[in-house]
Write a structure and sequence with these properties.
3 domains, Hypothetical protein af1432, Arc Repressor Mutant, subunit A, 509 residues, single chain, mainly alpha, 0% strand
């Protein structure tokens, strides 16, 4: 399991604007400090897995962060190392970095919004991130201690954290370790050993548990030596503590599906996209005669193909107008990052080349390599066609969703002009037709037909008023449905609703 979580952590690094392997370094520090503190093996083990999963909720509030501040990734990068217990640090970071690079008026609005509403938005962000992180942890087979730690990851020793305002030893010891290691990693990388140690000493008793801070300072030289090693990946796998959490190969599909949902939470426009692509691609593979192993391979590639999306800001993905040249270049690189993340795991590395090809085209007009013709395997052609068809049937910020009939026409036209493979398109269209004929005898959690309609719109980021208008019901009726959905699904945030919808295959009509 450590190997898979380490690969996923590369995606969360990208999603937070951080260098690759920064989460792994945080995990290494957490283990070393925990051992120096003399903690039981179970607590050190929990800290290890918690560190790797710390940012698994980072996509949960990305849409809202970008709406408020223009760039979700830059927003998180701005405040990760900032001590919110020191107002002067918060003000300085905000004025120096928030919305930097945006037009002057947009930047001024973002700064004003932060000073007016920043604490509330930060609390909502933490709540959304924690709620989906716990669900992901459960799906990945984590124990209760790791799940509890994920709900405490934004808390502070002095009680000034989010979302619960917990303090001192009411915060899981694993979370106290990871919180310190997370900040030390940034300070060490950006300012060096001395500054990192000075900041730990200054923040002891405020942001950090004094005992954890003291333990770190006692073993700082060993910790820094460990994270400065040439092979962080190998060091991490060697450091995995007992008891270890293992994954039977029979559950690999559960893990890749969780990775897919992690990506698709990033934007309301993407909810259910990766699972939809995987379903179309694997179904089409059966139609063209690929064997079971190849079909499973293609399904996993479909689930993981968009991991690199998290490297691009929602300010770009959710933009209703045309993209600028620099923005388009960021988009063109996301298949490269998907491939790079997948290639890091020996268990998943065989999927890498296929994952990296999902935006290529037969005539060489695709990206990121501009591959063409015989360079594109049969599996790659199926994945490309599935991705195009699925995207066409989903709403995007610049256009409404196409009907399945219209989507069929578009992909057939693409095949006609030589951009998509004809056999692949034919198989994807046939698979999509089979899915369109499905029916559900009952909905999960006791949801009614109308509540499922509301849930789909809620997962797609619609407000109560927008839901009322689209379904031609009153705002008060929409509100009642939303309350019932939250109660029945046992969730409390839009991101949790979206995740519930994906887990229960409720997105597609």
């Amino acid at each position: 399991m450590a190997e898979l979580l380490a690969a996923l952590s590369l995606a969360t690094d990208l999603g937070n604007g951080m260098p690759l392997e920064r989460t792994m370094r945080t995990a290494l520090m957490s283990v070393e400090v925990g051992r120096h503190l003399g903690l039981p093996d179970r607590d050190v083990s929990s800290a290890f897995y918690l560190a790797l999963l710390r940012a698994i909720g980072c996509t949960a509030f990305a849409h809202e962060e970008a709406q408020a501040y223009g760039d979700d990734i830059a927003y998180r990068w701005t405040y990760f190392p900032v001590d919110f217990g020191r107002a002067e640090e918060v003000v300085a970071a905000t004025r120096a970095h928030l919305a930097l690079g945006q037009p002057v008026e947009a930047r001024e609005r973002a700064i004003a919004r932060f000073f007016a509403d920043g604490p509330r938005l930060a609390s909502e962000m933490a709540a959304a991130a924690c709620s989906v992180a716990v669900r992901f942890a459960s799906r990945l087979g984590m124990n209760d201690a790791v799940s509890r730690g994920l709900t405490h990851i934004w808390e502070r020793w002095d009680g000034k954290g989010f979302p619960q305002g917990l303090a001192e030893e009411t915060i899981e010891i694993s979370a106290r370790l990871v919180t310190l290691a997370n900040v030390v990693e940034i300070d060490h990388r950006t300012a060096g050993r001395d500054v990192a140690c000075e900041n730990v000493a200054r923040r002891s008793g405020g942001w950090f548990d004094p005992e954890v801070a003291r333990s770190f300072l006692d073993c700082a030289a060993d910790v820094f030596g460990l994270i400065e090693s040439e092979s962080v990946w190998e060091s991490l796998l060697d450091a995995e503590p007992s008891p270890r959490i293992t994954l039977p190969l029979s559950r690999l599909d559960d893990v890749t599906t969780a990775f897919a949902d992690f990506v698709d939470l990033k934007s309301p426009y993407l909810v259910g996209h990766s699972s939809g692509v995987a379903r179309l691609a694997s179904g089409a593979a059966a139609i063209v005669g690929l064997d079971e192993e190849e079909r499973v391979h293609l399904r996993h590639a479909g689930l993981l193909h968009d991991l690199g999306r998290v490297s691009v800001s929602n300010g770009i993905w959710d933009k209703p107008g045309p993209l600028g040249a620099a923005e388009w270049e960021r988009v063109r690189l996301h298949p490269y990052y998907s491939e790079r993340v997948v290639m890091q795991s020996p268990l998943l590395s065989s999927l890498g080349p296929l994952v990296g090809m999902h935006h290529e085209r037969l005539d060489g007009s695709g990206y990121h390599r501009g591959a063409s013709g015989s360079q594109l395997t049969r599996a790659a052609r199926l994945l490309e066609a599935a991705d195009v068809f699925q995207a066409l049937t989903e709403e995007r910020p610049h256009r409404p969703a196409r009907t399945p009939r219209d989507a069929v026409g578009v992909v057939q036209d693409e095949a006609e002009v030589g951009r998509l493979d004809r056999d692949a398109v034919r198989a994807v269209v046939e698979t999509a037709g089979e899915r369109a004929g499905r029916s559900r005898a009952r909905w999960p959690a006791g949801l009614t037909e109308r509540e499922v309609e509301v849930l789909r719109l809620l997962a797609r980021g619609r407000s109560q008023r927008q839901i009322a208008a689209e379904l031609v019901i009153s705002p008060s009726t929409a509100h009642t449905h939303i309350v019932h959905i939250y109660e029945k699904c046992r969730v409390s945030t839009r991101a949790s609703v979206a995740l519930f919808a994906m887990e229960n295959d409720l997105i597609a009509v």
